[in-house]
Design brief:
With 491 residues, this protein is of the alpha/beta class. It is elongated. The strands form five sheets. It has a five-stranded parallel sheet with strand order 3-4-2-5-8, with helices on both faces. The chain has a five-stranded parallel sheet with strand order 11-12-10-13-16, with helices on both faces.
């Protein structure tokens, strides 16, 4: 069987990385990064539950449509602010917060009632009871649909192993860390709002509303001696818990403003861990005339075996081949007017659905040029999974294009600055294309930048690059954006 050409590997819905160049995989597993993450999660569930009949199990898993919901564990010593961070993450991610208190407070549950009685007596819940409460809570509809955040659980290695045994697998584990002296001082000023559960501090976070101030209460167990004892117990347990989560763990310093801790935590939980599942690259290059899109597309096609799809060339080829679409395009070429978008997208869709594009991936340039065209391309299912905007100043574009010349005898192309003709005889006969006139270029650039803001908003995950530098430097940036993790924009 023939190989399909180089395949680029991907880590997750946002994180990409290369397989060996020239590696081959069956076409059935070539997929976008979203499908790769879905496949990864499905395989994970199959390994955990090992159903007797996997087909209905997989169908049910797909119907849940919850592969991207938060599954987070937040750990930290007393006064590290883990509950505050967990609450903020829950609000931001629209997820469910699971704490010891709300697990045992569950109504109409004999298990919760039993755990509640035990907690009221000795201020702890047996590990087996706690893990069973977590299992029951995570099986409820809201946790399945919106995900969950475990605050301060597991508390010991025993609980961590029990949780893993039940197939409860977090995607992200955050551990907050700070010096004990800072934590003891911070704990002494802690106050709790009995109505909302919100935590305040007499020094760092005192509420401005008198009504809230008056109802704040001093929580039990926050004296210096009690806090020191809890810290000792925490340090004894945490070093035995961390090895269970070594590949999905991030330690964040809690000895900094709470908002900084939150944003570091939010950035981390919005990334996904690595997967070697492959994907088919579908690259879109956007930029004004003269920004170097054609050269970059050629370099990508050469190195990674992608199909170079230039919209303008496609239309010319259709006319030259006298195809059905070519006959529709010919009158517009003769009148030197724009080909209607409805015809262009049909030509593009036909090309992008051919076997080589499906198998190897593609790099598209010259379309879309505005928001309407982007919507048309999207509606046909031709969605790029990497988009780059090449920004080049007007003066640089003028220099690149207005100095281009063609030898009418040999067809050789020259540039008066970068690639001058070798003899005066050749220079004397060189011709300039009417399309390279400064007025024509200015019109095209104005049109592009008039529409670029809407395009950038539509392709919100696109990378914007400085195209006014050495072409190979630009190519390295584009290549990095394809094979390395994509930056994730935090709202």
């Amino acid at each position: 069987m023939e190989r399909s050409g180089p395949i680029i590997g991907i880590h997750s819905a946002q994180d990409a990385g290369p397989l060996e160049p020239g590696s081959w995989v069956p076409m059935q597993v070539l997929t976008t990064w979203t499908s790769a993450l879905c496949l990864q999660n499905m395989l994970e569930q199959l390994l955990i539950y090992q159903p007797k009949d996997p087909i209905p199990f997989m169908i049910n898993h797909l119907q849940l449509d919850n592969d991207n919901v938060p599954k987070i564990v937040i750990l930290g010593p007393p006064a590290s602010g883990k509950t505050t961070i967990a609450m903020w993450l829950c609000k931001h991610l629209n997820s469910n917060l699971l704490t010891m208190e709300n697990l045992i407070a569950k109504e109409f549950s004999s298990l919760a009632a039993e755990a509640r009685r035990h907690y009221q007596t000795v201020k702890t819940v047996p590990s087996m009871q706690l893990v069973r409460l977590i299992r029951d809570r995570l099986s409820e509809e809201d946790c399945i649909r919106r995900g969950w955040i475990l605050d301060g659980i597991p508390e010991s290695r025993e609980q961590a192993l029990m949780i893993q045994t039940l197939g409860i697998t977090p995607r992200h584990v955050i551990v907050l860390s700070a010096p004990d002296t800072v934590l003891i001082e911070r704990n002494l000023g802690k106050r709790v709002d009995p109505q909302t559960g919100e935590i305040y501090h007499t020094t760092f976070d005192w509420p401005p509303e008198p009504e809230i101030q008056n109802r704040l209460m001093v929580p039990g167990g926050i004296s210096e001696l009690e806090t020191a004892g809890k810290l000792l117990e925490y340090h004894r347990n945490i070093v035995r818990i961390l090895p269970s989560y070594s590949k999905i763990l991030k330690v964040i310093s809690a000895d900094q403003p709470c908002m900084d801790v939150f944003y570091q935590a939010l950035t981390y939980v919005q990334t996904n861990r690595r997967s070697n599942a492959p994907f088919t690259p579908r690259v879109l290059l956007c930029g004004p005339v003269g920004s170097g899109k054609s050269l970059q597309a050629a370099l990508l096609a050469q190195k990674y075996g992608l199909v170079n799809v230039c919209c303008g060339h496609l239309l010319k080829e259709a006319v030259a081949e006298k195809s059905k679409f070519g006959e529709m395009i010919q009158p517009f070429f003769e009148k030197d007017t724009a080909v209607p978008d409805s015809i262009v997208v049909k030509v593009l869709s036909q090309r992008l659905s051919q076997q080589d594009c499906l198998q190897k991936g593609w790099v598209l340039h010259g379309f879309p040029r505005d928001l309407d065209q982007a919507h048309l391309l999207h509606s046909l299912g031709c969605k790029p999974n990497r988009v780059f905007f090449l920004n080049v100043p007007f003066d640089s574009v003028i220099e690149r294009l207005t100095l281009r010349r063609t030898d009418p005898v040999t067809g050789e192309r020259y540039h008066l600055m970068y690639k001058p003709p070798p003899t005066m005889e050749i220079q004397a006969r060189l011709l300039q294309s009417p399309k390279d006139a400064e007025e024509h270029i200015k019109l095209k650039m104005d049109l592009f930048y008039r529409n670029s803001a809407e395009l950038e908003e539509f392709y919100w995950q696109a990378l914007t690059l400085n195209g006014d530098q050495d072409p190979h430097t630009v190519f390295e940036y584009i290549e990095s954006g394809i094979i390395n993790p994509l930056p994730r924009k935090v709202p």
